[in-house]
Amino acid sequence: MRNYHSIFVNGQWVPSTGDATIEIVSPHDETVIATVPNGTPDDIDAAVAAARLAFDTGPWPQMALVERLRYLTRLADLYAARLDEFAEIITAEMGAPITLSRTRQAAGGLYCLRSTIALAAEYNWEETRSTAESGPAIVRKLPVGVVGAIVPFNFPQMLVMAKLAPALIAGCTVIVKPAPECPLDALLLAELVEQVGLPAGVVNVVPADKAASKHLVAHPQVDKIAFTGSTPVGRQIAAVCGRDMRRCTVELGGKSAAIILEDADPAATASSMEFASFANSGQGCVSQTRILVPRARKNAYIEALADMVQSLRVGDPSNPAVDVGPMVTRAQQQRVTSYIKLGAEEGATTLVGGPGMPEGLTHGWYVRPTLFVDVDNGMRIAQEEIFGPVVCVIEYEDIDDAVRIAQDSPYGLGGSVWTNDRTSGMAVANRIRTGMFGVNTFTLDFGSPFGGFKASGIGREFGPEGLDDYTETQTLYVDPALM
Fold first, then answer.
1. Mean pLDDT, rounded, for 437-449
2. Which protein family is named in the record (predicted)?
3. Which alpha helices (DSSP H) does 22-106 contain, by range?
């Protein structure tokens, strides 16, 4: 795995102003696989200055849309040629199973980029409206300015592209701050940006820890912060941006509920929950971590779910046969394990899994895929985001009770209902307040908005709504005599 000795600022690879480095540790075998510079607040200042100059005086925001899209199409082509490399890096640095890294992680970044490029051609960048007292008004979308993009560890390329692609298409300039746990894929992306030949300062990549991140968020020359991560940190970012009247989008946590109706097939539904609940080793904000089953048929669903969880293959994420890899860090392993212990203390029954290392593993940051039953929705394991392969089964009496339980959460990111009857499924969907909801499916599409209600965030990524959040709306009045 390659070491990086520089950061990418103003179109060049330059040394950090500090001497500290970040060690990238394999979640599988706990060895150091690479080192990168640990960016400083001074590095952030340099990146912001470059982005500010590129936006205020450079060609990028003044280019015709078709010209910007040519650059991004070239970036997509270069990206496609190195998909396998991206996938292998992501698996090595954060532990995603390699099959997921190929099909969702690296490929997700590429699909997001290409989807946003295609969307840009249809986006309503400008329209003319009639006015009551004068000539027509031109309503147009302008770039929001300098963007600080703070990316999490769990889907690093998909989520950097959710910010970078619409920002660049809109004409913004960007400082990318990858997660310190997995900056290698972002630095590889910077190599591609350099190859494409984007104007200096348009894209800057600075791996760094929390101190530099806070400096970026508070920087007065940054017009917008785009953040994906935990709700507590998102609240802090929104507060700082609100104080300074700067724009922000914050895509935050979730505790999504999958409601299984009485007519759903137990085996088929449990099979669907394998991806919906345990994809990326449970490290997903939209994971269906509360599974609601009808009390009248609970045994059938619980038995099918238990069989599914017991069948999950845990181990080396570079093995294509593995379903569940390690947690990203030792701290995350300890956090998830503490919740597994807490569930038992709260009175839930551990039907599958529990604390301790999975069978056959003696090292790495692994936890056992765990299924809790006899869970009350008021328990902490049912209310708090665990971010690991831990699922709670909660019983309900009738549809009204199921909807009440699903809604009884501080979050509102995703959810689903599982049934053989479309009418019944849509009736449930019409009562749920979440940013995403599936009827007999669990999916995400880059042409449709992604984001949440309540504590799950502010703003949307993907689709035209994602482009909206990187623009400002300007109304231009022109004297009719000049028309």
1. 94
2. Belongs to the aldehyde dehydrogenase family.
3. 41-56, 65-81, 83-94, 98-100
For residue 215, what are its two tokens?
A: 């400096």
pLDDT in tens, 192-212: 999 999 999 999 999 999 999
Domain range enclosing 381: 256-445
Residue 134 confidence (pLDDT) above 80: no
What does the CA dihedral 462, 79, 170, 455 come to, rounded to 10 degrees? 30
Number of Cβ atoms within 10 Å of the Cβ of 274: 17
Question: What are 125's two structure tokens?
Answer: 């960048």
Q: Quick check: 413 and 442 in contact, CB under 8 A?
A: no
The answer to whether the Cα torsion of 168, 170, 173, 176 is positive or negative is: negative
Helix pair angle (83-94, 184-196), 10° resolution: 150
- Cross-strand pairs, 32: 25
- Residue 196 belongs to a domain: yes
Instruction: Report the C-alpha gap between 179 and 193 in whole angstroms.
Output: 19
Measured distance CA(163)–CA(139) in Å, rounded: 24
Q: Does residue 304 sit in the same domain as residue 380?
A: yes
One domain, residues 197 and 334: no
Active site residues: 251
Residues 95 and 234 in one domain: yes
β-strand pairing of 453-454 with 411-412? antiparallel
Work out the number of other CB atoms within 10 angstroms of the CB of residue 103.
Answer: 12
Q: At 126, which CATH number?
A: 3.40.605.10
Positive/negative CA dihedral, 172, 5, 210, 234: positive
Residue type, 10: N
Please state the rounded mean pLDDT for residues 265-272.
98
* Within a domain: 468: yes
CATH label of the domain that carries residue 402: 3.40.309.10
- Could you tell me which of 280, 279, 301 has the C-alpha nearest to residue 291? 301
**155-166: b or e for each residue (b if 16 or more CB lie within 10 Å)?**
bbbbbbbbbbbb
Considering the domain architecture, whether residues 261 and 247 belong to the same structural domain is answered as: no
Give CA torsion, residues 422, 425, 427, 431, to 10 deg.
-150
Same domain? For 244 and 262 the reply is no
User: What pLDDT, on the 0 to 100 scale, is given for residue 368?
Assistant: 98
Would the pLDDT of 481 be above 80? Answer: no
Q: From the centroid of its chain, how far is CA 460?
A: 11
Q: 287 near 385, Cβ under 8 Å? A: no
Q: Give me the number of domains the chain comprises.
A: 2
Q: Is 19 exposed, middle or buried (0-12, 13-18, 19+ CB in 10 A)?
A: exposed
pLDDT tier for residue 483 given thresholds of 50, 70 and 90: low
Which pair of structure tokens corresponds to residue 92? Answer: 């090595």
Predicted confidence at residue 131, as pLDDT, reads 85
Q: Are 97 and 245 found together in one domain?
A: yes
Exposed/middle/buried for 464, CB within 10 Å: 0-12, 13-18, 19+? middle
